[in-house]
């Protein structure tokens, strides 16, 4: 039996057992006692009010503090295994976050996204600096579908609201936790809530964790991942792959009366994630190589140092009117150095670093919610300052750290002139963004059961950016004199400006059938902003503008409570149309480009689809609590049909075709899809990347009362199973871009005894090896002078693959007071 078949067999058995338990519990539920059987109320805060999930007209998964801890959601990436309809590809220092198949189809700091992440009400920089650990949490809300009215730009796919716990008045309380596990793992959390006066409270939370590398090869081989290749001095691994995270949070609450409430929070993070340990592709098959034994030579390390603050001031006027001011500030200094050529033993790496600062201000005015006509109105302002300095100060560059390697790509005649760490490509990048908007929503109760909501948001977005991309900036290349000399003066760089205005909106009709059944139907619009392609100075084709992506969402939902409030369900079906879907392709260097550009196989460009794209699907969620048995689950079914992009370059054509002319696809593989010619016409119907057609999750826990007394001893075993079908890392579907789906199983056994608790836990219980992400997957024709082509003979796949964490296990012990 194959390993994958074994996974399916085990998971099927688990699902059947869970279904049997569910059936038995529901049969007995009608006679169950009301004590400790109702499902906890889950709330949504995205529309600036606290709403019950069961009566909120939105498709969402809400995880409260108890659920986050039980399902071991300790960071952003783990959300995809607890909420259906999302996929997060983890690139160590970055991620692509997709909801309903939309978000980012390529990871890059200058590219727009379709998902916005808020932390304590403050928007963050989506795609980066999201890996801070979850501790002392109040809850996480994953909202599916466009959220343009309240979230604004970049919410074409959805939004995530992360809430940490506020200080509390009235009593001293706190908790402490210590844990350890395999891979030399240790973790510690301490929280103290201190009501210093009747009106003032202080809350302090600290979290730290450490872990050694997930890859034994990094510590055992001179060139991690394998022996040195004959004639190639690949260089050693520099840096470390140890994980060391230290975070602290200070919260202040001042509530002098029943009208005024002020909450201020500041997080300070030092997050050292270790290296970007990646592997590559077999040059003969295009399949990913051994994920557990990567080659990671050259300098490596990824560290974020940041401060994040929020100030939430709310004032209640008479009659239920409330004014809220939310001020946000965050700044991050990051450094990320990593290998970018996967399995190639040459030391070829990427160095990046910069400072990123975000200021935001929002004002909201809300009316009483219990009136026939109620409303919310707000103003929003955001300023982003992104600064990546030029090398050698700490910017980003592709770097070669090996003279033999330089000789191998045509530098032999000038090798004595090549210094160590000579950048191959570098640039400063400065981007200054403004985003401001006004929004409002009215809610009119036509009858006591029928409700109409209409909302809209008028927004403006603009930026100014400066870049000065240079190839081989510190060495002469081929017949080109050294940059900075009289024969080849340094370019002056490029400054671009972009601006757009937008109007996003929502109309929904809600019907409360009775106290337990709720129906809604909505139409909404959201968008992801446009931008300008970055590129080399003086190459006008590099700096083309691409348009915003606009989405119209048609959605209907049904939410129900059953079995005396012991079972809650949420069902949504949707159909979405997209205009100007944004995708990213390699295009040949334009005619007349400088000679150094001719050495590049393709330039990275964003383009819009020329016809309408369509996405439709179904989403389901459920939470059940039947005495000592707790169940939860989710399911999302998804289908996409993208519009046409016209003629695009297919980089995989020489590899996955029957002849050198690339005129026929390989009929022996299901993965090659409709692509087969070097100038491929992508017709209507292509699938979005990072979009599994099926995602599902199921969790079950049962409490066993070992000792019944005034201080009982309880044991609660819990299992969580998540499944996702196959997806792809870009639009070209082939074995190299395949992100293989499958099952993931987590297990825990929790003990509680008064204020004390303990947990034995394991994640990825079956120790499945799979790719968490694939980045920059393309093809190299193997021509002389290319960095990869001289090592791999003939056409081959280039790119890197990130391994998802293997099986991890350990224990935690904690106490509350």
Summarize the structure.
With about 800 residues, the protein is mainly beta.
Supply the number of helical segments.
Answer: 6
Quaternary structure of the protein: single chain
Question: Can you count the beta strands?
Answer: 47
**Main beta-sheet strand count, sense and barrel state:** 22 strands, antiparallel, barrel
Uncertain regions: pLDDT < 50 for 5+ in a row?
A: 1-35, 228-233, 392-420, 658-683, 784-790
Strand content: over 45%
Gross morphology: globular
* Intertermini distance: 51 Å
Q: Helix content range of the residues, please?
A: under 10%
Radius of gyration: 27 Å
What number is the mean pLDDT? Answer: 80
Category by helix and strand content: mainly beta
Task: Give a verbal description of the structure.
With 817 residues, the protein is mainly beta. Helix content is 7%, strand content 50%. The chain is built from 6 helices and 47 strands. The strands form 9 sheets. The protein has a 22-stranded antiparallel β-barrel. Strands 3-8-9-6-7 form a 5-stranded mixed β-sheet. Strand 14 and strand 15 form a beta hairpin. The longest helix is centred in the first third of the chain and has 27 residues, at 3-29. The two termini are 51 Å apart. Mean pLDDT is 80; it is low at 1-35, 228-233, 392-420, 658-683 and 784-790.
Topology:
Layout: H1 3-29, E1 43-44, E2 51-52, E3 59-64, H2 65-70, E4 86-90, E5 95-99, E6 115-119, E7 122-123, E8 137-144, H3 148-151, E9 158-164, E10 173-181, E11 185-195, E12 200-211, H4 217-220, E13 237-239, E14 243-254, E15 260-274, E16 278-279, E17 298-316, E18 322-339, E19 348-366, E20 373-388, E21 396-400, H5 403-411, E22 422-427, E23 429-445, E24 450-467, E25 470-471, E26 494-512, E27 517-528, E28 531-532, E29 545-546, E30 549-562, E31 567-579, E32 582-587, H6 595-598, E33 603-608, E34 613-626, E35 629-641, E36 646-649, E37 679-682, E38 694-702, E39 704-707, E40 713-724, E41 727-728, E42 738-739, E43 742-753, E44 756-763, E45 771-780, E46 796-803, E47 808-816
């Amino acid at each position: 039996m194959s390993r994958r078949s074994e996974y399916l067999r085990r998971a099927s058995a688990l699902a059947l057992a869970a279904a049997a338990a569910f059936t038995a519990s529901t049969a007995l539920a009608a006679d169950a006692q009301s004590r400790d059987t109702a499902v906890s109320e889950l709330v949504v805060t995205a529309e600036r009010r606290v709403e019950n999930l069961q009566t909120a007209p939105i498709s969402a998964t809400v995880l409260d503090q108890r659920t986050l801890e039980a399902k071991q959601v300790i960071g952003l990436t783990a959300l995809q295994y607890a909420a259906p309809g999302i996929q997060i590809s983890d690139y160590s220092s970055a991620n692509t976050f997709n909801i309903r198949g939309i978000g980012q189809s390529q990871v890059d700091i200058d590219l727009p996204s379709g998902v916005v992440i808020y932390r304590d009400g403050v928007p963050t920089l989506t795609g980066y600096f999201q890996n801070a650990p979850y501790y002392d949490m109040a809850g996480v809300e994953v909202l599916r579908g466009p959220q343009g009215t309240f979230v604004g730009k970049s919410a074409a796919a959805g939004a995530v609201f992360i809430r940490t716990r506020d200080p509390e008045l009235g009593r001293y309380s706190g908790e402490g936790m210590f844990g350890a596990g395999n891979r030399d793992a240790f973790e510690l959390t301490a929280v103290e809530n201190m009501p210093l006066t009747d009106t003032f409270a202080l809350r302090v939370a600290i979290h730290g964790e450490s872990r050694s590398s997930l890859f034994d090869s990094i510590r055992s081989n001179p060139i991690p991942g394998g022996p040195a290749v004959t004639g190639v001095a690949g260089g050693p691994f520099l840096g470390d792959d140890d994980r060391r995270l230290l975070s602290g949070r200070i919260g202040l609450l001042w509530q002098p009366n029943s009208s005024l409430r002020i909450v201020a929070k500041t997080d300070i993070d030092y997050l050292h994630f270790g290296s970007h340990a990646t592997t590559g592709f077999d040059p003969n098959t295009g399949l990913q190589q051994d994920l557990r034994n990567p080659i990671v030579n050259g300098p490596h390390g990824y560290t974020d140092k940041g401060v994040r603050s929020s100030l939430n001031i709310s004032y209640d006027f008479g009659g239920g009117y409330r004014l809220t001011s939310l001020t946000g500030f965050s700044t991050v200094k990051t450094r990320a150095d990593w290998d970018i050529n996967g399995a190639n033993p040459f030391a070829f790496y990427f160095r990046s670093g910069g400072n990123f600062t975000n200021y935001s201000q929002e004002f909201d005015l809300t009316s009483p919610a219990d009136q026939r006509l109620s409303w919310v109105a707000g103003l929003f302002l955001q300023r982003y300052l992104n600064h990546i300095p030029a090398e050698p100060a700490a910017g980003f560059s592709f770097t070669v750290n090996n003279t033999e390697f330089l000789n191998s790509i045509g530098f032999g005649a000038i090798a004595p002139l090549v210094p160590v760490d000579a950048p191959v490509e570098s640039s400063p990048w400065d981007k200054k963004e403004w985003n401001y908007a006004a929004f409002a929503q009215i809610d009119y109760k036509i009858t006591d059961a029928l409700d109409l909501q209409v909302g809209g948001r008028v927004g403006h977005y603009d930026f100014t950016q400066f870049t000065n991309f240079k190839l081989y900036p510190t060495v002469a290349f081929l017949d080109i004199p050294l940059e900075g000399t009289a024969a080849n003066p340094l370019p002056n760089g490029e400054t671009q400006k972009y601006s757009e205005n937008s109007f996003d909106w929502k109309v929904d009709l809600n019907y409360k059938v009775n106290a337990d059944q709720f129906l809604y139907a909505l139409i909404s619009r959201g968008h992801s902003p446009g931008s300008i392609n970055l590129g080399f100075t003086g190459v006008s084709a590099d700096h083309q503008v691409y348009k915003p992506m606009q989405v119209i969402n048609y959605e209907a939902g049904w939410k129900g409570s059953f079995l005396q409030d012991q079972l809650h369900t949420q069902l949504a079906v949707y159909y979405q149309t997209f205009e100007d879907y944004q995708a990213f392709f390699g295009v040949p260097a334009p005619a007349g480009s400088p000679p150094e550009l001719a050495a590049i196989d393709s330039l990275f460009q964003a383009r819009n689809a020329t016809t309408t794209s369509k996405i439709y699907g179904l989403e389901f969620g459920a939470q059940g609590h039947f005495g000592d048995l707790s169940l939860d689950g989710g399911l999302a079914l998804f289908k996409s049909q993208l519009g046409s992009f016209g003629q695009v370059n297919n980089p995989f054509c020489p590899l996955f075709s029957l002849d050198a002319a690339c005129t026929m696809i390989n009929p022996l593989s299901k993965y090659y899809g409709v692509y087969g010619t070097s100038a491929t016409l992508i017709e209507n119907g292509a699938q979005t990347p990072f979009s599994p057609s099926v995602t599902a999750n199921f969790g079950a826990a049962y409490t066993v009362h070992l000792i019944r007394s005034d201080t009982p001893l309880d044991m609660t075993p819990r299992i969580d199973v998540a499944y996702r079908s196959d997806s792809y890392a870009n639009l070209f579907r082939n074995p190299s871009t395949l992100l293989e789906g499958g099952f993931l199983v987590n297990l825990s056994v929790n003990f509680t005894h008064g204020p004390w608790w303990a947990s034995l836990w394991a994640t990825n219980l079956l120790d499945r090896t799979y790719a968490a992400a694939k980045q920059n997957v393309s093809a190299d024709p193997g021509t002389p002078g290319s960095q990869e082509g001289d090592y791999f003979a003939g056409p081959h796949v280039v790119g890197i693959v990130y391994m998802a964490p293997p099986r991890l296990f350990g224990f935690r012990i904690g106490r509350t007071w």
